[in-house]
Amino acid sequence: MTMKRLFAVLLVGMLAFAASDICHAQFSKLSFGKYGVSSIRPESFRAVRGAVWMDVTNPMEGFTISEIRGLVYKKGMPFVSGSASDVYIPSGTARMNVSGRAALCEGASLWDVLALIAFDPKDYSVDLSVRITLDSGATRVVSKKNLPVEALLKLI
Q1: Predicted local confidence at residue 86, as pLDDT
Q2: Least buried of 7, 85, 99, 116, by fewest C-beta within 10 Å?
Q3: How many Å is the Cα radius of gyration of the chain?
């Protein structure tokens, strides 16, 4: 799995998970279509900034996902911390752009990044925190700990 693909999968997967939590049973109607990387660039030796685009169909009321924060663990050790810009998921079908930043955690090395060539999702888990605000004004903060990356991959 390339670094670009991993970045896109994690970011889109986190958004899909956050959306599924607020939509509950209606999530089966919310669909994420094609997605890809718009840009990715190094910010330093230990951090990158990037943006992904994704097609979303939302037959329900629109909502905003904000305060998006995540921490990826590799075999239980902090590996990458990240955040993403606020994203509005409108009612209907739309192509959205989301930007984010990811940085290696203390103790993780560039060699760990190179090891992503042999990426095994079973080795990774995520802590995720987001704020979800429906167009009607209802707001909910969602935090999940130790979410397997495999679960995120199944959502997209």
Answers
A1: 92
A2: 85
A3: 15
